[in-house]
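REVIEWER CHECKLIST
Item 1: Sequence provided? yes
Item 2: Single chain? yes
Item 3: Sequence as submitted:
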Amino acid sequence: MDLKEIQHLIKFVAKSGASEVKLEMEDIKITIRTGTHSKGETTIVHQPMISQQPLAAVPTSQPATIAAAVPTEETKEEDNSKYVTIKSPIIGTFYRKPAPDKPLFVSVGDTVNEGDTVCIIEAMKLFNEIESEVSGKIVKVLVEDASPVEFDQPLFLVDPS
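Item 4: Structure as written out by the authors:
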């Protein structure tokens, strides 16, 4: 599928009034979502499908990379025990900025005080400011901007010392 075909498909979906269309072919997967709350906004997700190749075709360096990543995750879990986790109080969409053209609420290395706004979670078209429950330094942001979050999902790690 080439670019012109994809553009034609986007225009067709926008005119049809459908809110979401998924197209899966042998080598690609395309999802087109049109936002009903914002005029003319279309989101396209393009994911290449994983090919069904025999295991012999997989490069030998890849398993070594995976094996090296496992101990790193275990040590991170041990290191994270001294940090306080700021969790999502609601289900919704996580935003790190108050608006697309505004700066981030907090970044890694920033110092926050109890009650400072660290992000916004949009739920049912309401924007809820999430405040820090602890004073300290932001060590890690655990969620990508504009991604969905669940209730009690960790959002930030804060070093209270």
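Item 5: Key structural point noted by reviewer: The CA atoms of residues 143 and 155 lie 6 Å apart.
Item 6: Recommendation: ____
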